[in-house]
Design brief:
Length: 351
């Protein structure tokens, strides 16, 4: 980047684990930058990722630059991330939702310093691993960062836009597996889509839900300990998580559950699954039984898949009852949900 840039230094240079940081923008618009929040989000991300990945920020400095005429929203150059000036929301009312979206982009690019730069995919087949992780991890970081509590009430609602992007892309004739065979760099251009970002991050959210926070984190520690400053493939990543999962002794998915096989069912096939509630009521009109029916969408190389979800039951006055975990099987596609007795349930919300 070259031009008439101005910058601000991080006002907290001595905070442990934080490298020298600057934020740049054209001098004529530098007053439009919310430096306090941007530095805060970045520092919270660095602290959380150090804990989550088991490695502190791996480079000597971290600059963030707002540039005009940027092809994308942002780009994760090592130690120097660029952002489209549109993120400054000049002349707009800057709502909490807009601030949350930019915080997500900020943390997305920061996550790439580990997923993409500290460890890099060996070939384009595994692009999803870079982009899906950088899409999901900002939301987990916000949920676990007390100083970002103002984003937490609507954090997962915002993440749903990526899930919907994945769902809609997965129903097109052009759908493909999350981890798909790429034969040339020209073909790789087509991978930057709702599958690699949206569906991949939704799968990782399901994987995070299956393993739990501590086991997921332990698997990531194994991954970065073994492969830092190197190139990886899908079995390297899944193998690290499987080591942590095996050591956890968790049998909540069933004694026959095999994590690598389950990951392949999600990552190497395409198409959506549809979950529907099947309700039975008694003579008084009260909900008596609830089953979940899983079917397959029409597109892709599809199949039924095992899933771990929560089910929310609502009474007339809005009182909520969470049934969790609920395991949706991948055999006949039908699963039974245990309903607490004595409740007059008026609405059911799956997942």
């Amino acid at each position: 980047m070259a031009g008439p840039f101005g910058f601000r230094e991080n006002p907290h240079p001595k905070e442990e684990g934080i490298p020298p940081m600057r934020i740049y923008a054209r001098a004529s618009i530098i007053d439009e930058v919310n430096f306090d929040e941007m530095f805060l989000v970045t520092m919270c991300g660095m602290h959380f990722y150090k804990d989550m990945f088991g490695k502190a920020y791996p480079f000597r400095k971290y600059d963030q630059v707002f540039v005009p005429e940027h092809n994308y929203g942002a780009m994760e150059n090592v130690g120097c991330v660029t952002f489209n000036e549109n993120y400054l929301h000049r002349g707009e009312t800057i709502t909490l939702a807009k601030r949350l979206r930019f915080a997500g982009t900020n943390l997305h690019e920061l996550a790439h310093m580990w997923f993409g730069n500290l460890v890099t995919m060996k070939w384009w087949n595994d692009l999803w691993l870079n982009e899906s992780f950088a899409t999901l991890l900002p939301f987990i970081a916000m949920i676990h960062s007390p100083r970002l509590a103002h984003f937490q009430p609507t954090c997962w609602v915002t993440f749903m836009q990526y899930t919907f992007w994945g769902v809609s892309t997965d129903q097109l004739s052009s759908t493909h597996p999350i981890c798909t065979e790429i034969v040339s760099t020209d073909q790789a251009e087509s991978l930057f889509d709702g599958i690699s970002y949206g569906k991949g991050s939704a799968f990782l959210k399901q994987l995070y839900n299956v393993l739990g926070h501590e086991t997921f984190k332990k698997g990531l520690h194994y991954y970065f300990d073994k492969y830092q400053w190197g190139n990886t493939t899908l079995p390297d990543f899944v193998g690290s998580l499987n080591q942590a999962w095996t050591e956890s002794g968790d049998f909540s998915m069933g004694s026959e559950f095999d994590l690598p096989t389950w990951c392949d069912q999600w990552l190497k096939t395409s198409g959506i699954n549809i979950l529907e509630p099947v309700l039975t009521h008694n003579a008084e009109g009260h909900l008596e039984s609830l089953k979940i029916k899983q079917t397959m969408g029409l597109r892709g190389n599809n199949r039924l898949r095992k899933q771990k979800i929560s089910v929310c039951l609502f009474e007339q006055d809005g009182t909520q009852h969470i049934v969790s975990p609920v395991i949706v099987n991948d055999l006949d596609g039908t699963s039974v949900v245990q309903i607490p007795s004595g409740l007059n349930i008026k609405a059911v919300y799956l997942n």
